[in-house]
Amino acid sequence: MKAFNSARPFSILWMLLFVFSTLTPMAHAQWKATLGAQNHSMGHQALAFLPNEIWIHTGESVTWTSSVDEIHTVSFLTAGQVRLPFQVGCPGFTVTGFATFDGTTCITTPPLVKGQTFTVNFPTAGNYKLVCLVHQNMTGSGACSRFIATTSSWAGLL
Ligand SMILES: [Cu+2]
Question: What is the number of domains present in the chain?
């Protein structure tokens, strides 16, 4: 008969504590969204942010990934700011693949192509407009998106 190993329950407890401690820094959710869609021939392009409405908590991030060969930008303008051509973008902003947007400074990607990503963290609740600087005349659902906050602790993307 095998003797009961009394050390095992403590090993499992330590393992669980280790796993919990390594997961804690990921408490803020990381959301994923897609830029555009296309058919096999690439002749039909959906010029849209998919989804075009995301509600998140403040402090969370959204990563957009381009899924198409058509170029798009992920751009957040300040309130009332006129869209600049995508060749101009946001003067003074340097793209690193990750940015923080709180509504005070315009941020944008250069035109993204299939497979490229851009992550934005939103530390402040707000009503933020998301646009694509390449397709300035797109209208209707999916053409433009914006963050909306209904309380001080929520932000949403519409
Ligand atoms: Cu676009």
Answer: 1
**DSSP code per residue over 26-60:** G-S-EEEEEEEEE-TTS-SEEEEEESS-EEEETT-
Q: Which domain holds residue 104?
A: 28-157
Asked, for residue 23, whether it belongs to a domain, the answer is: no
Higher pLDDT, 4 or 143: 4
Ligand 1: centre distance to CA 21 (Å): 41
Ligand 1 centroid to Cα of residue 61, in Å, is 21
Q: Which residue has the higher pLDDT, 70 or 6?
A: 70
Per-residue model confidence as pLDDT tens digits over 82-115: 888 999 999 889 888 899 998 899 999 999 999 9
**126 CA distance to ligand 1 middle (Å):** 23
Q: Domain holding 142: CATH number?
A: 2.60.40.420
